[in-house]
Specification:
It is a single chain. By secondary structure, this protein is of the alpha+beta class. The chain folds into two domains: 11-89, RNA-binding S4 domain (Structural Genomics Hypothetical 15.5 Kd Protein In mrcA-pckA Intergenic Region, Chain A), CATH 3.10.290; 96-328, Pseudouridine synthase (2-Layer Sandwich). It is 21% helix and 28% strand. It has eight helices and 19 strands. Strand 14 and strand 15 (214-219) form a beta hairpin. The longest helix is centred in the C-terminal third of the chain and has 13 residues, at 236-248.
Length: 338
């Protein structure tokens, strides 16, 4: 297992001068700087652009300036001028983002995304939450030798496995295997109330471009888009331990994870069930909307349940299986008997 961290509270060495690579032609200046300084991301690059004068071929430029291959970028300022080529940037942000590479072969890599992290830029990028590093932006740092592409996405408050294809043929193979039902994804979820038997949720989903997906009263004809739910053997203590592990997956703010507010669950139902959820070819919010449709929304889901909004929810992508490759997120939930 490879551990890769973005530690904004530590010093990161980088040069104050760069020649823009040809492959960056036409990109925004802040995008280029984020690529040239691994670990800073777009947010860090924009902080530099705000704090220092950044010249492109001798002229001061802003974050949105479109660069050309071969241009010379120089960061100017007293600290840079004194430090010279080996200059260090002072701490920018007391924020730590951690991404693990759990498994890898010549075709695919399984990344473990922490809850609270976006997989890709949002509409309106780079405003708002878009200033934070995304999993997609981490790919050139993790795999500088490969044109890596994300094959699945997780919602911001969901942690777990995200698959990346390391070349175009692998991406095409994955798409074909999904259509053939040869890709299986297994999640762990906590839901309020007692779920005593397995259930297959067949409801079609209205995934029109709105914030919340709606489960319909008609069945989805494609069985690959059904959601299979199986209760696991886990008592109250085990569920609490699972929730605390999920809470610890939130790495954006660092520091101590707040105590899990179980009162919000106990007041409503008095109990909670751990379940295994399996999907083959998922849609946006499929698991969250399907579980809510049968009266068991994911614990702490503020959109489909009653919250509260903790920045994470009781849903974790635990395992993925495809031809010639499989990965799991770790041993944090080995206490369960399945």
């Amino acid at each position: 297992m490879i551990q890769f961290g973005f530690a904004m509270s530590s010093f990161e060495p980088f040069f104050s001068e760069h020649v823009i690579p040809d492959e960056c032609h036409g990109m925004r200046l802040d995008q280029v700087l984020a690529r040239l300084w691994p670990g800073f991301g777009r947010r860090g690059a924009r902080r530099v652009l705000e704090a220092y004068r950044v010249d492109v071929d001798g002229r001061a430029r802003k974050a949105g300036f479109r660069v050309s291959g071969g241009q010379l970028v120089r960061v100017r300022g007293r600290e840079f001028d004194q430090a010279g080529e080996g200059g260090l940037l002072a701490p920018l942000e007391p924020e730590v983002l951690a991404v693990r590479v759990a498994e890898r072969n010549a075709d695919f890599a399984a990344l473990i995304k922490p809850a609270g992290m976006h997989c890709e830029p949002l509409p309106g990028w780079p405003d708002g939450d878009g200033m934070r590093l995304t999993l997609e932006e981490a790919l050139p740092v993790l795999f500088p030798e490969a044109p890596t592409m994300l094959m699945n996405r997780l919602d911001q408050p969901v942690s777990g496995v995200v698959l990346a294809a390391l070349h175009e043929q692998a991406a095409r193979d994955y798409a074909a295997w999904q259509d053939q039902g040869r890709v299986r994804k297994e999640y762990l979820a906590l839901v309020p109330g007692r779920l005593s038997r397995s259930v297959v949720i067949r409801s079609a989903l209205d995934t029109a471009k709105r914030r919340k997906v709606r489960a319909l009263s008609v069945n989805e004809p494609d069985a690959l888009r059904w959601t299979r739910v199986t209760p696991l053997v886990a008592g109250t203590a085990a569920c609490l331990e699972i929730a605390e592990a999920l809470g610890r997956s939130v790495r954006l703010g660092g520091g101590v994870v707040p105590k899990v507010p179980w009162d919000a669950v106990w007041e409503r139902t008095g109990e909670v069930t751990a379940v295994r959820v399996e999907i083959f070819k998922g849609r946006r919010h499929q698991i969250r909307a399907h579980l809510a449709s049968i009266g068991h929304p994911v614990v702490f889901d503020p959109l489909y349940g009653s919250g509260p909004d903790l920045g994470w929810i009781g849903l974790h992508h635990r395992k993925i299986f495809l031809p010639g490759f499989q990965a799991h997120s770790g041993k944090e939930f080995k206490l369960l008997r399945e």
